Fold:
Amino acid sequence: MKNIWLAVLLLACSLQPKAQVTKATLTPGGITCSMCSKTIYEALKKMPVIESVKTNFKDESYAIVFKKDATIDFDDINKTIVEAGYYITRLKVAMQFNNVAIKNDAKVNTAGLELHFVNVQDQVLNGEKVVTLLDKHFETEKEFKKYAALPCMNNGVSSTCSTISGTKVYHVTL
Structure:
């Protein structure tokens, strides 16, 4: 009987809507030379959640591949870039979704993250989708201002925005 309940529990857990962060494209600001690019590259390579980093010199961005099943904290990525002496002007993240329903101005808990979807159509996400982070440290000031009127955009932690009190909320769009 215990084996049956264990099997039912495992099946229920496997059917839960979920996503995994797999890779990202990071565009930093403040780069003025090739040494700047190398500094960012080296800083990203040292992060324990990152499998590989490739520099795209043409558009001054970095293609990041995360380690399988790693728990990603976007604030840690921002901190790494800031500590290297730069800032993020755009962070686009590829996630593998499995039956995750999203709605405009609604939150979803997935991949260990609380995502607040903004400016999206109601839909169910499956397969790889790219989401763009809209929060202050992941966008240019101009882009951030487009969404700054949302109650919790400025600090990302708010009882009006988070479904779990005190949880970091990342605002994203497709």
Remarks:
- The first strand starts at residue 18 and ends at 29.
- Residues 2-14 form the longest helix (13 residues).
- The helical segments are 2-14, 34-45, 74-83, 141-147.
- The mean pLDDT is 84.
